[in-house]
Design a protein that fits this description.
Largest sheet: 7 strands, mixed
Low-confidence stretches: 3-28, 296-305
CATH architecture of the largest domain: 3-Layer(aba) Sandwich
Helix content: 25-40%
Strand order of the largest sheet: 1-7-6-2-3-4-5
Radius of gyration: 21 Å
Structural class: alpha/beta
Number of strands: 12
Number of domains: 2
CATH superfamily of the largest domain: Nitrogenase molybdenum iron protein domain
Length: 305
């Protein structure tokens, strides 16, 4: 279930922005968007076009829940969709084709279809450019995202490999190579703790011990409207899950960070906030081998430096 949630929220394996526009639309026509993709809604909110959305993905968390859900990757409620009279439908089909029924309805009802992908940071940027061009020309939002994801110079201080974790029980579910979140670590100039594998991988606690990450970053979105717990956060045994059972050096040294932005697991342009947060807090870590750990507590194992 967590695997499905991650790929529903991160959404997409292949880039493919394709429009099915059965007829010309006048500039005066009211735009009504069914965003059957949380990432699409996320980008549109960043473009200040969330008010144009009349139908949402079943698991969307960026929009007001009063916006009617119309489906997800497992299926679309076509009757509900048609009742909303959309002018545009945005989907994310992963490696599958756009449903034939949706194409047929696009032709008979006159709405356009846009298919996006947002697995990688560059996919997100391409999707943001496409949606900005269509719904908010000249907004500059995609340029801001491009600046956020630019490649930084490699960080010279040694903080060890950075491991990005979503869940810690019953397995340690990590975001690995190919995921937007691991790419964030790389673009910020840090070294990922895992360099081979899949975008989503469940590991055992012993696997994490063998990897020996220098830093563990938990991605745990909080409820919208609630205050962040990230600054000064100290994980409990419940937070650590199976990691609490072993002597993980990163945990012992207090090198565990929390990212709890409400949209932290949605691969949209709101990742700008996640990038800024991680850049600030990873930059505040002391190098491995220093006399004190990052909670300013004496580290008896630390060597000179």
């Amino acid at each position: 279930m967590r695997f499905v949630f991650y790929f529903i929220t991160l959404l997409g394996l292949l880039l493919g922005c394709a429009d099915d526009a059965p007829r010309e639309r006048t500039r005066s026509e009211v735009v009504r968007i069914a965003a059957i993709s949380p990432a699409a809604a996320n980008i549109l909110v960043g473009l200040e076009r969330g008010h144009l959305i009349v139908g949402r993905h079943n698991y969307d968390s960026a929009l007001d829940q009063s916006v009617p859900p119309v489906g997800d990757q497992s299926g679309i409620d076509y009757e509900k969709l048609i009742s909303l009279k959309p002018t545009h439908v945005i989907v994310q089909t992963e490696s599958q084709n756009i449903p034939t029924r949706l194409r047929e309805l696009a032709q008979s009802s006159g709405f356009g279809i846009t298919d996006i992908s947002t697995l990688s940071l560059d996919d997100i940027l391409d999707s943001a450019k496409a949606l900005e061009s269509e719904f908010a020309p000249g907004a500059g939002h995609s340029e801001r995202f491009a600046e956020a994801i630019r490649q930084r110079e490699p960080v010279t201080k040694d903080v060890g490999g950075v491991l990005v974790v979503m869940y810690s029980s019953p397995t340690v579910d990590v975001l690995g190579p190919g995921s937007a979140h691991q790419q964030i670590i790389e673009r910020l100039g840090y070294t990922p703790a895992i360099t081979k594998g899949k975008p989503y991988m469940p590991l055992g606690a012993e696997d994490v011990l063998a990897i020996d990450p220098g830093v563990i970053v938990f991605i745990r979105p909080r409820q919208p409207g609630t205050p962040t717990l990230a600054d000064g956060w100290v994980p409990t045994n419940e937070d650590l899950g199976v990691l609490a059972k072993l002597d993980i050096p990163a945990v012992r040294r207090g090198r565990v960070l929390l990212v709890d932005d409400p949209q932290a697991l949605t691969s949209g342009t709101s990742l700008i906030r996640v990038i800024e947060d991680l850049e600030r807090r990873l930059g505040g870590l002391s190098p491995l081998g220093s006399q004190h750990n990052d909670n300013d507590q004496h580290n008896a194992e630390a060597g000179p430096g």
